[in-house]
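User: Hey, quick favor. My workstation is busy. Could you predict this chain's structure for me?
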Amino acid sequence: MKTSFLVVLLLCTVVMAEEKSTLPLPVSGSVTLTLDEYNRLMELAAKPSKRAEIAPLPYSVKHADVKLRVENDGVRGTVQLEGEVFRKGVSKVPLTSGMTVLDAHQNGKGVPLLQENGTHMALLAGPGDFSIALDTGLPLRVEAGRASFSLPAPAAGSVQLTLVIPGDHTFANLSSGLITSRKSENGHTTIEATLVPGQPANLWWATRETVTPAVPREMRFLSDAKTLLSVSEAEMRVAVLADITVVQGEPTQFQVELPAGYEVTGVTGATLDSTETQAGVLTLKVNAPSRRSHQFLISMERSISGAKADAPFLSFKGAQRETGEVLVEGAGTMEITATEGGGLKRMDVREVNPYLRSLAHFPAQAAFRYHKQASETPNLALEWVRFPDGSVLAAVAESAVVTTMVTSEGKSLTEVRLVLKNQAQPFLKVSLPAGATILTADVGGERVKPVQGPDGNRVPLLRPGFHPTDSYTVSFVFMHSGAPFAKKGGADLSLPSMDIPISLLSWEVFLPEQYRVKDFGGDVIAANRVPQPFREEDAMNAQRTRDAELSSQLKLEAPPGQMAGYVTDPSGAVVSNTRLTITSDNGAARTVTTDAQGRWSIAGLPSGHFKAKAEMAGFQSSIFNLNYDASQPSMYRFPLRLATSAETVEVTAQAAQMQAGMVATRGGPVIDGANLAQLEILAPNSGAAPQNLASANVLNLQRKVAGVLPVAIDVPRTGTSFSFVRPLVLDEETKVTFSYKSR
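Assistant: No problem, here it is.
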């Protein structure tokens, strides 16, 4: 039975082997995989191979154990450094700096060292740990009763110090570190401390050793003190710039005797180490005794209550010679009287040392110099008077040209034209007399709106987009109701006060012709009694301003090789359609007509002498002699006069940038001049009475009334003009009185 079972099992095994051998075999070189297995293999093949990681630092010094011992006049010991080199190959490992390295060894073998920039470095192979021992030495400084040395701590993760110093229970001090233990045995004191890695540690302790003191060398030096005295309302400040010149020795300090009552507020100097004040003596300790020159700036102050004080003088103890300068200044508005004595010599403030002048903040009022002698001490007594501070002027009027027309009803119309220099004042405060009203105002030739304030009227001095850098014109017109004229009597006219100073006020009063006027009074002066230069300067400044404004409005520009300009009437307004004929010396003539803005220009003229004839209906024909230079821009202003008869006048004009102009007087020879305004003011003094002729200002005001001003007033077309002036008007009313009688 058992035998038959074995036979059956054998047959089954053979059959199964035959069935397995009949399965197809895969082709050589290929394999059949599922899709998931194939994708996994592809992902693995696409992954980059891992690179070997490199340490960020080639080395690390983990710990330093410093063991030192004080022997005789030096410090000897070992420094044990432990660390690790991370990278393969040889790496430079810095060990220590500032020490004298006598030997270096690792595991009983010598280690070669390199020195770069004062640092000892070892060449160590890695990767691997290292432990290097250094035999080192440091200098010991021994002074009277004190010993010390400086230990540069290695740049390790931690630094431990063990120091053995001579003496039982010696108290040692450590800077930049922490002492963790002290113990004494066998006549020595052992100190253990933890140091700050990479920072020098200073150690010192007291000793019983004495050092033979050196024989002091006599010190000789000279002092020169430059003193600034600043007197203010409540205190006196003193700044002393002291120059010390060492002649002999090496002084470590200087002593200064301080004046009583003064407090030192500051001391500076390039060689100053520290200061100390005791018993009225200031000690200046220096850090460079070998220097031959020292400079210190010493500041002091004291409170004052009166109006007089004595000036202090600093004195350096032991100085072989003391010289100096004194400069006195006053803070604010004050007058200081200085009385000198004791060898003090007065000097011009312009001769004061420039470094002393640079310390001043206010104008200097007095200056002195001195050379101290054994027999005398310089002294300076100061007395002062304070004045109330005044406000800074934001605007000032170089001139004011005022024109007033008076009607038979007693009404007056006044135009005020100011030539200003303005820094920041936005409005002009005008205190009008009772019954007066401002009608119009303009700034720089453009209309602005006056403002009514609770304390008076305001005229704008600036307008949006207008940023003047030089003088410009502001004008306003006001009307006063007044009182009607009788057959005879007295009357007065007044101008409002204005809150800016006026250098020179010129006032022309135009009265109706049916009245005979006399007995003028008030706070004005008749124009013919004022010296001519004042009126000429005023008129020239006003004309320059008018010309500059007109040229700016017309945008006049004349390049080289072109002759150009404009034509004006007696009021200064431009005249269009004026016929100009330019004739050269050889008879060649060219004609041009002014445009709607009164401008004209001719190009291509050679240099030489020309005559320009201006012709316009209603005006006198005028001939202007011109000296023309083609290489320079030439601008001309041709003023015309109203025609009274058929006549031609000839004048000579010179070109000038933007403002040249000439005018002729009637029936006379050729006139050379530089400015129309000047000639207009000179003309009345040539025989005609100045009060009989109305100026262009009156004509201009008549024109404004006729078509510009929003007022109904019967303006006299004929009458008599009277001219007055008043210099330096400071925010006050100007008044003129007169008596009249009907003709």
